[in-house]
Amino acid sequence: MSQYLRSLKEVRQFDNLEFLAKQVVEGFMVGLHKSPFHGYSVEFAEHRLYNPGESIKHLDWKVFARTDRMYVKRYEEETNLRCQLVLDVSNSMFFPKGEHRTNKMHFSAVSAAALMEMMQKQRDAVGLTLLADNIEEWIPATSNRANIARIYHNLEQLIQGESEYGGTKLSSNLHVLAEQLPNRSLIVLLTDGLAEENSEELIEALRHLTFKKHEVILYHIMDSEYEMNFKFPNRPLRMIDMETGQMVKVQPHAIKEEYQKMMETKFKALDLACRKLKIDRVEADIRREFGQILFPYLKKRSKK
Q: How much is the pTM?
């Protein structure tokens, strides 16, 4: 990890938080997170009837003495989290350009670096996927130092604006990802949601992820000043689609109301779908410090 990222104080404030998955997850090692697999080494889970012929090592003799029936103790393992950070790296994520401040891509990459720092403290396995027209980068969840270094290298390139990939085929790539990832992973998706497809296609892709028993957190990255409040100068402007290059001439005040209604409808539909799918959707405004959004939310999760 470069000195550039290490110098960000906001990244370090996540060091002592425990990122507890709400859902049952599979993993590699004994750690902090619940596993669907049962063993005999840790916390008691339940009793089950003894099956003739199996070992009597884990019989509950106290229950047998009281009931004259044979029950086996089952225990619930604790396991580390398998997390896949999924970043939308389409050209719209590099908005706004030409300003002396962060853009959506910078915000997303630094946020992902903060999660990486915290999860490594917990020995969680972390991977990275970059999505644009295609799956541009795929690093499976791992604790291997070489792969972790690859992840940081990719994030650094994005922060420095050295990589741009083109348009967005977010939903189709998420469908592919749903099939590729091991079941019961945690998927942290950072995107502006401004894909070429309509909201229903994105919602269907999120539904596919939850069907595969993944827990999904959607960080909805946006620039509130321009993308929500439409605070453009009140004069004729040429607006260029960052992904297609298409240009239109507009008078901002003439279309502002209609634009805001359209965006509100789009985001309300997405929010409702996320609630139904039990997906945490976090509105992440780049006009705020990323720690002001990530830190309170992760602190809330750590107490669940």
A: 0.74
